[in-house]
Design goal:
Elements: E1 17-18, E2 22-23, H1 26-36, H2 41-48, H3 52-60, H4 67-83, H5 89-97, H6 115-126
Antiparallel strand pairs: 1-2
Helix pairs in contact: 2-3
């Protein structure tokens, strides 16, 4: 047995992140929506540009997010982790949803889908005094 191998006994534990750090676990998605953003399914679906039924199916474990949606969820989770020490969850959701003059009137949530967009968001977040390693 190699030094890096581990043995696990008992029921399998599901991580909130699987394969390549992509958020797909139904409990993690629900926790992101309810605890980190304090968002209704309506608000969450609007942020992610998917239907409320899609959010319901993700949280019920009936389907997993496609690769693009899972990556957006992963980046959104990281943004929430960065912002949560200085913002309430409802304020984070509101900030993500509103067009922001500092980023050419884009909604911050819309910039999470691309590397270029995340690079534009990083200095905006850092202006608040928060350290951002990656989003």
């Amino acid at each position: 047995m190699h030094a890096t191998a581990s043995v696990h006994h008992g029921p399998a534990r599901r991580s909130s992140k699987v394969r390549d750090g992509v958020l797909t676990n139904r409990q993690a998605i629900r926790r992101l929506r309810t605890a980190k953003l304090a968002a209704s399914r309506t608000t969450f679906s609007r942020l992610l540009k998917v239907s409320e039924n899609t959010i319901f199916r993700w949280e019920a474990g009936k389907v997993k997010p496609d690769r693009r949606a899972a990556q957006t969820l992963d980046h959104l989770d990281r943004v929430c982790d960065v912002l949560s020490p200085s913002m309430e969850p409802t304020a984070i959701a509101s900030w993500l949803e509103k067009p922001n003059h500092a980023i050419e009137n884009f909604r911050p949530i819309d910039l999470l889908d691309s590397e270029y967009g995340r690079l534009k968001l990083k200095p905006l977040i850092e202006e608040t005094g928060l350290a951002v390693q990656s989003i």
